[in-house]
Amino acid sequence: SGALRGVPSYPSAGMEFIGSQAPIPLIPLGPSGPSMLWVSVDQMHFILSLMLAAARLLAALYSPITDCDETMNYWEPLHFLLQGSGLQTWEWTPEFALRPYIFLLLYALPAKTAGLLLALLPDGAVPAIVKSKISIFFFVRIWLGTITLMSEILFARSVGKRFGMNCANYLLFFLCLSSGQWSASVALLPSSAFMQISMM
């Protein structure tokens, strides 16, 4: 194993690499000071995938709903499907019927299942908020974030097969930092669903 240009040579004993992709140096700061640690491209891909999963979970918990259309045209009709009540805009009235409920059924079925499972929990075993509608709201947001995460990882794997794993790792890194992905990943909107489908 020769030295790369501008990078010191790394130990190759017991390390297997795919093709000519070299490991990536990391400099962890420990009690004994900085030390060089080599991480393979595949290990970096796994680390970045975990970072992306954490970003999607945090988005589900802390990202605000930034669009009134999401609230009035999707969350309220979903609340109607789950709870039997909710505000209705003119697009959803039977007179105009511009929006179909089939899109919301994709989210209502897992949400209803989660609500039934939460109802089975004993009353004293968990706090009351766990069995409330707030938990269902966050379950749907986590569900949306999980679907987005899976589509992003599949997209990164496709990029890795076509352009190499280094390019896929850069993609995952920038997806972690993208403010647009932060909002869109957990938005209950058809545009977010199309984004997820197009990345798969």
How would a textbook summarize the main sheet?
2 strands, antiparallel
Between the first and last Cα atoms, what is the distance in angstroms?
Answer: 37 Å
Please give the share of residues in helix: 55-70%
Portion of residues in beta strands equals 5-15%
**What is the ordering of alpha helices and beta strands?**
EEEEHHHHHHH
Spans of at least 5 consecutive residues with low confidence: 6-20
Instruction: Determine the number of helices (DSSP H or I, runs of at least 4 residues).
Output: 7
Description:
The strands form two sheets. A two-stranded antiparallel sheet has the order 1-4. Strands 2-3 form a two-stranded antiparallel ribbon. A hairpin with a 2-residue loop joins strand 2 (29-30) and strand 3 (33-34). It is mainly alpha-helical and 200 residues long. It has helices at residues 41-62, 68-83, 102-119, 133-163, 165-177, 179-184, 190-199, and strands at 24-26, 29-30, 33-34, 37-39. The chain contains seven helices and four strands; from the N terminus they run ββββααααααα.
List keywords for this structure.
mainly alpha; two-stranded antiparallel ribbon; single chain; 58% helix; 7 helices; 200 residues; 5% strand
